[in-house]
Write a structure and sequence with these properties.
The chain has helices at about 1-30, 35-50, 55-60, 80-100, 110-130, 140-150, 165-175, 195-200, 210-220, 230-240, 265-275, 290-295, 310-319; strands at about 135-140, 155-160, 185-190, 200-205, 225-230, 245, 280, 300. With about 325 residues, the protein is an alpha/beta fold. It folds into two domains: about 1-130; about 130-315, TIM Barrel (Alpha-Beta Barrel). Strand 3 (about 185-190), helix 8 and strand 4 form a beta-alpha-beta unit. The protein is elongated, with a radius of gyration of 23 Å. The protein starts with a helix and ends with a helix. The protein binds ligand LCLJCK34 and the ligand Cc1nc(C(=O)O)sc1CCOP(=O)(O)O. Ligand LCLJCK34 binds near residues 159, 206 and 279.
């Protein structure tokens, strides 16, 4: 009996902790009161539904005897992984309670609510943080994007200035297949109409495009990225409610030959003043990437040095 109570106590705690993490993400990161309240209601309902006095559960607690106590909390790479891990933790704990608790069947609805909420929160996480300590690889060549994802990049962009829309569409489809085995965001440069047609995560546009019209076209739950070259454009981007901006080109680059470099000073300015996620881009290579990170960027964008993705990621994620 004591052992069963200990199991119940562990799983009530596990469910509450998982729900609490989701709740705090909704509260502090998304500032979404409705989602926060929904999660809070589920969390608070556990004790009532189970109808086991707190004191009984606490009395049975035996954290010292828990054989899995020393297992470290795994390092999560980004907000999406934190959401997935904690939703899973909450749902699994609810499932255990359903099995072992006399009134456990009452928890089934709560578990299904958690599954539904996870889907909503996962989309929100992707929009709020389209990248986090990442290498955003941009190429016209699908093979380059596939390699980047296999090397750990979680956001890639097809940017093809030569082909027509149908070829771009085919290239995107060939990259999208990798989603069956890898979690990453697939973005297209220009062509907002392909977001729905291919089922992409979003689109990146430049200053020559009406970002508000693009938002209208792709909908609120897709990623919209906007190029910026100065702080006024970055501030305007905040008003436009894009999901991220790029800041560049930091150094002169043959990939964008007519564009004046903005220098590391612009990276510092964005890091200090703009709340939106940003990707620093332009002229980055392994010899200068450290200065970009030191200026406040946690994600870099690369075209020519896409082949160094794994090396960049080691620097960005593990140092
Ligand atoms: C992440 C990222 N940053 C900048 C660009 C450049 O886009 P844009 O301003 O549209 O310029 P061109 O691609 O037309 O040269 C990008 N594609 N992605
Ligand atoms: C496509 C692009 N946009 C930039 C911008 O600042 O808007 S810089 C850039 C090219 C970046 O290429 P590389 O990594 O080869 O220097």
């Amino acid at each position: 009996m004591l052992k069963t109570r200990r199991l119940l106590d562990a799983n009530v705690n596990r469910a509450r902790e998982g729900l609490r993490v989701l709740e705090d993400i909704c509260r502090f990161i998304f500032a979404d009161l409705a989602l926060t309240e929904e999660l809070k209601t589920i969390r608070h309902s556990l004790r009532d539904l189970l109808d086991i006095p707190d004191a009984l559960l606490v009395a049975s607690r035996g954290a010292d005897e828990d054989v899995a106590r020393e297992r470290p909390v795994p390092r999560r790479a980004d907000l999406r992984q934190i959401v997935a891990a904690n939703a899973k933790r909450a749902a699994e704990a609810l499932r255990v309670l359903e099995e072992f608790c006399p009134r456990g069947s009452l928890l089934k609805d709560q578990r299904y609510k958690v599954y539904d909420l996870e889907k909503i929160i996962a989309v929100r996480a992707r929009l709020a943080r389209p990248f986090d300590h990442d290498v955003y690889v941009i190429s016209a060549d699908p093979a380059v994007l596939l390699d980047a994802v296999r090397n750990g990049s979680r956001i890639v962009q097809l940017r093809d200035k030569e082909s027509g829309v149908d070829v771009v569409c085919q290239k995107l489809l060939s990259v999208k297949r990798l989603k069956e085995s890898h979690d990453f965001s697939l973005i297209v440069n220009d062509y907002p109409e392909l977001v729905a047609r291919v089922g992409l995560d979003g689109v990146h546009v430049g200053q020559d495009t009406d970002a508000a019209a693009v938002r209208q076209a792709i909908g609120a739950d897709k990623i919209l990225g906007l190029t910026t070259h100065n702080i006024e454009q970055a501030k305007k981007a905040v008003e436009l409610k894009v999901n991220y901006i790029s800041a560049g080109p930091i150094w002169a680059t043959p990939t964008k030959p007519r564009r004046q470099p903005v220098g590391l000073e612009y990276v510092r300015e964005v890091a200090a003043n703009i709340e939106l996620p940003f990707v620093a881009i332009g002229g980055i290579d392994l010899t200068n990437v450290r200065s970009v990170l030191d200026a406040g960027a946690d994600t870099i964008g690369v075209v020519r040095s896409a082949g160094q993705t794994a090396e960049y990621l080691r620097l960005i994620r593990f140092e």
